[in-house]
């Protein structure tokens, strides 16, 4: 008889001699062929086929017994079929798969029909139906999985058995559902920067996720993702020793929600002897509820698994052979407790009893919110591992922050090297101001690269000066840098608001400085047996030098704690003179948010090693343009930058095309207007001169409201019609609105005039603005669809009668004269903005319920800031010296809402003049000014008289200001 197929439910590696597949997946296999006997060849007796009439089916149904037999057989067949399917279905089939992924199956078998036909990267198996009998299909084997699977593929390149061992092998315990998220995040961040290898350990049915097919995954045979992961942890320890024991000195057991700093980990492990048994981690004995219930002796502990556990090679060699015994003798459900018990029993060592491990292997008890806030904390900076990071996206954020710290350390190292060069030049009698002229030997210069070259190392004469508050020496009184006084508030002599709260940027800078200072103070605290803690800044001074950096003079309140010898705790004060030095000038060009990369060095050089005939050095065009940009402190974006970066050939043409496409962006000017025809005429004159005469791709929409003070609507329409006739290629339109003036409503109506599409770049502007072509360039470059909105910081003029009072002028002779005497930067003004219409709709547009003056710009800015994470549209702010707000008297309607009225009055006060100018006017009045201030103070302090009160005299009118 032919062989029949049945479902074998036995485990391949336990019940089947010879092993078979290694991951325990059940397969269909043929039953053994029966032995041949004489009875096998004996044919059954022949029976005559009975005659069945055509009416037999109806006759069968009429017989109750036959009908019941037919129904019962059908039901029984369905039940048997369902039971067969249930018992033969592989448990992998119930695993939740990623989109586009089929359930996994036995490795090494051909792909299923769907997967094979579509080229899907997922893994799956099952039955494929078609013409003929059913056919078994199995998934494609991922890299490293199959009969020829070599686990050593996870090692470092070049690592060989018996050779020099790597430093550390990291085993990350994860689960199948976390492979596309947490495990992938670990692999993308710190996992690729380790001084060794890394492997991810998961259940036996796990496979690398489709989004990370290169993930170094080890699917532990016979292990699932159940919690607690005691078996997974022990099997991982056994696997690490069997496969990688001869290749590494250290082994780290980590979770998939921990961040490891590879540089600090390497520094720690290099300082410890790995030939001795070492069991390093954050020691624990259980919480208060579990204390005494974990079967631990008085001198036993365990290493808490969350922040990570380190094993030396000797420790792993003693523990790994006894994993099976440890699994058979479990006392608790805690994986890290049982691991510690196993190490204590067979390696004879406890976890490190060290208080410092709480800082090195840092655990944050905030749960899911851990490391989602501010990362500028001493604990974060000092730690080697950070745990837990439950939201895997924040793992990338932490990684970026650690990268910034490494960059700062590199900058500091570079400054130290420049200072060493400067000191040695002075000792050797060379001119330290010109290190480029120094030669180590004949025709062997100290610096082979010159200013402007790609490999230029920086100006040692500038960066090599030792820290000092006297680096900058002013040439005259005007060049003296003022100090700001820091106390509970910030006091500045040259600021529009002399007393104000400390800005967030300065506060953050102070936190960084204090943290660095305390690290330097406590650098040798262990040797000296004391520790000094920071309390507060009593007072201080701060100034900023554009050439050298930020200077601080701080008076700190500290607490001195001595814990060795005669113990004491006393408050102390310390005066600190500090300087944060600036590093070299960094130049980066972007087009539409994408960085314009430089040509690789191997492509820039010709075959014989020269630079293809291009001149290099300080006298070359590239070096000259760089020197001009560096010395002037201003990089002239435009024609100088392509030559600066050394572009030529096809790459330069392609970049030129990209820049040309940016310059072709159509800017749609949206201008709200109510009356003010004279000011509008000036705006039209500027618009015509800058935009229309130069054939700039622009359009102008004037949203015209009726005015209560002047009748000029007809003149406005006539002027725009005349402009349209002279420039018919441009779209110039007036949109009348028969309602009371509301800027938010006007800007919404103006945005509606522009169709959705590629040319929906909107620029909201006021009629008081003057600008130049450079402003248009900045708008086009800094406004990026779907990524960035541009809120320029405009320069606002002071009242000309104050600025030019000696000359008797009422109008500024030059609107683009920018200094502290002619005006101020509107850092808190957001009314002028450039954005795309699609981005405006993403954040919800303007709040048209806001009527009258102000507040609508702040509301829009807040919407962009709040929705930045959701919409991925950032806010870019920068000062534009070619965008100036011409002075005019600010009239504040007393019927405005209190917040709007306060903002309006504040703006009006800011435009009167600078602090120094107003102080000179007051001082010139002498005693009259003091008398006026005294009367105002007295009137403000007096309680108001009640209406109809007997003897209450009416208040005297305030005297006019002198």
Task: State the major sheet.
Answer: 6 strands, mixed
- Total strands: the figure is 34
**Silhouette:** globular
Rg to the nearest angstrom? 39 Å
Share of residues in helices: 25-40%
Subcellular location: Golgi apparatus, Golgi stack membrane
InterPro entries: Chond_GalNAc, CS_glycosyltransferase, Nucleotide-diphossugar_trans
Biased composition (Low complexity): 941-953
Family: Belongs to the chondroitin N-acetylgalactosaminyltransferase family.
Written description of the protein model:
- The chain has 962 residues and is of the alpha/beta class.
- It has 31 helices and 34 strands.
- The strands form 10 sheets. Strands 7-6-5-8-13-10 form a 6-stranded mixed beta sheet. It has a 6-stranded antiparallel beta sheet with strand order 20-19-18-21-22-23. The protein has a 5-stranded mixed beta sheet with strand order 28-27-26-29-33, with helices on both faces.
- Helix 6 crosses helix 10 (335-346).
- It is globular and about 95 Å long.
- The termini are far apart.
- It comes from Megalurothrips usitatus (bean blossom thrips).
- Residues 101-110 have a biased composition (Pro residues).
- The chain crosses the membrane at residues 70-88.
- It is a single-pass type II membrane protein.
């Amino acid at each position: 008889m032919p062989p029949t197929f049945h479902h074998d439910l036995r485990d391949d590696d336990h019940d089947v001699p010879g092993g078979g597949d290694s991951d325990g997946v059940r397969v269909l296999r043929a039953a053994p062929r029966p032995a041949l006997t004489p009875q096998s060849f004996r044919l059954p007796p022949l029976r005559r086929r009975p005659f069945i009439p055509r009416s037999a089916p109806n006759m069968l149904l009429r017989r109750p017994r036959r009908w019941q037999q037919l129904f019962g057989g059908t039901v029984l067949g369905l039940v048997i079929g369902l039971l067969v399917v249930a018992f033969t279905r592989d448990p992998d089939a119930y695993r939740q798969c990623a989109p586009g992924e089929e359930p996994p199956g036995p490795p090494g078998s051909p792909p299923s029909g769907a997967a094979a036909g579509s080229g899907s990267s997922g893994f799956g198996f099952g039955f494929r139906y078609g013409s003929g009998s059913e056919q078994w299909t199995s998934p494609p084997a991922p890299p490293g999985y199959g009969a020829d699977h070599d686990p050593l593929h996870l090692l470092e390149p070049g690592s060989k058995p018996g050779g020099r061992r790597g430093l550390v092998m990291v085993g990350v315990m994860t689960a199948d559902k976390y492979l596309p998220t947490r495990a992938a995040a670990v692999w993308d961040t710190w996992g690729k920067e380790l001084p060794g290898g890394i492997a991810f350990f998961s259940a036996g049915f796990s496979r690398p996720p489709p989004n990370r097919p290169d993930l170094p995954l080890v699917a532990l045979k016979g292990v699932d993702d159940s919690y607690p992961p005691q078996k997974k942890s022990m099997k991982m320890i056994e696997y690490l020793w069997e496969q990688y024991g001869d290749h590494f000195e250290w082994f780290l057991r980590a979770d998939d929600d921990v961040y490891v700093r590879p540089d600090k980990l390497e520094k720690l492990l290099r300082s410890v002897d790995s030939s001795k048994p070492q069991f390093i981690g954050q020691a624990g004995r259980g919480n208060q509820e579990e204390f005494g219930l974990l079967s631990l002796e008085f001198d036993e502990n365990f290493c808490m698994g969350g922040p990570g556990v380190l094993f030396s090679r000797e420790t792993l060699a003693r523990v790994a052979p006894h994993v099976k015994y440890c699994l058979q003798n479990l006392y608790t459900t805690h994986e890290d407790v049982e691991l510690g018990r196993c190490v204590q029993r067979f390696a004879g060592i406890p976890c490190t009893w060290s208080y410092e491990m709480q800082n090195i292997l840092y655990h944050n008890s905030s749960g899911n919110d851990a490391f989602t806030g501010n990362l500028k904390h001493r604990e974060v900076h000092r730690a080697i591992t950070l745990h837990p990071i439950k939201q895997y996206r924040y793992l990338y954020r932490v990684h970026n922050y650690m990268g910034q710290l490494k960059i700062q350390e590199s900058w500091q190292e570079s400054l130290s090297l420049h200072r060493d060069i400067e000191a040695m030049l002075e000792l050797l009698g060379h001119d330290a101001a010109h290190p480029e002229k120094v030669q180590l030997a004949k025709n062997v210069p100290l610096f082979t690269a010159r200013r402007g070259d790609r490999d230029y190392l920086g100006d040692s004469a500038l960066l090599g000066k030792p820290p000092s508050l006297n680096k900058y020496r002013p040439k005259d009184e005007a060049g003296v840098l003022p100090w700001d006084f820091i106390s509970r508030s910030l006091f500045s002599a040259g600021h529009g608001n002399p007393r104000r709260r400390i800005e967030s940027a300065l506060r953050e800078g102070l936190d960084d400085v204090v943290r660095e200072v305390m690290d330097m103070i406590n650098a040798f605290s262990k040797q000296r047996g004391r520790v000094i803690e920071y309390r507060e800044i009593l007072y201080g001074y701060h100034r900023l030098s554009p050439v050298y950096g930020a200077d601080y003079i701080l008076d700190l309140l500290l607490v001195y704690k001595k814990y060795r010898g005669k113990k004491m705790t006393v408050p102390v004060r310390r005066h600190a003179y500090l300087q944060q030095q600036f590093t070299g000038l960094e130049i980066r060009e972007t087009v539409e948010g994408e960085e314009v990369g430089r040509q690789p060095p191997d492509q820039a050089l010709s075959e014989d090693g020269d630079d293809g005939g291009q001149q290099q050095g300080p006298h070359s065009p590239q070096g000259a343009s760089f020197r001009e940009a560096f010395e002037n402190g201003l990089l002239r974006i435009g024609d100088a930058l392509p030559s600066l970066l050394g572009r030529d050939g096809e790459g330069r043409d392609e970049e030129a095309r990209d820049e040309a496409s940016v310059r072709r962006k159509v800017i749609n000017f949206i201008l709200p207007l109510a009356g003010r025809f004279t000011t509008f005429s000036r705006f039209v004159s500027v618009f015509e001169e800058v935009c229309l005469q130069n054939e700039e791709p622009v359009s102008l929409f004037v949203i015209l409201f009726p005015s209560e003070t002047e009748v000029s609507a007809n003149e406005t329409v006539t002027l725009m019609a005349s402009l349209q006739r002279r420039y018919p290629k441009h779209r110039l339109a007036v949109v009348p609105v028969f309602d009371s003036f509301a800027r938010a409503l006007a800007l919404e109506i103006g945005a509606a005039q522009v169709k959705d599409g590629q040319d929906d770049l909107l620029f909201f502007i006021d009629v008081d603005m003057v600008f130049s072509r450079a402003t248009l360039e900045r708008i086009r470059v800094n406004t990026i669809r779907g990524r960035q909105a541009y809120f320029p910081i405009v320069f606002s003029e002071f009242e000309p009668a104050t600025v030019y009072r000696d000359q008797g002028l009422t109008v500024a002779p030059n609107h683009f004269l920018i200094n502290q005497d002619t005006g101020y930067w509107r850092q808190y003004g957001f009314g002028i903005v450039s954005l795309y219409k699609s981005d405006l709709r993403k954040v919800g547009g303007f709040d048209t319920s806001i009527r009258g003056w102000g507040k609508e710009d702040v509301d829009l800015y807040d919407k962009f800031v709040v929705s930045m994470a959701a919409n991925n549209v950032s806010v870019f702010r920068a000062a534009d010296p070619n965008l100036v707000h011409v002075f005019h008297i600010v009239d504040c309607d007393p019927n405005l809402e209190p917040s709007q009225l306060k903002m309006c009055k504040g703006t009006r006060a800011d435009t009167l003049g600078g602090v120094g100018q107003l102080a000179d006017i007051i001082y010139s009045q002498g005693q009259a000014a003091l008398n006026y201030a005294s009367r105002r103070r007295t009137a403000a302090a007096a309680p108001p008289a009640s209406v109809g009160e007997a003897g209450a005299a009416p208040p005297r009118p305030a005297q006019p200001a002198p």
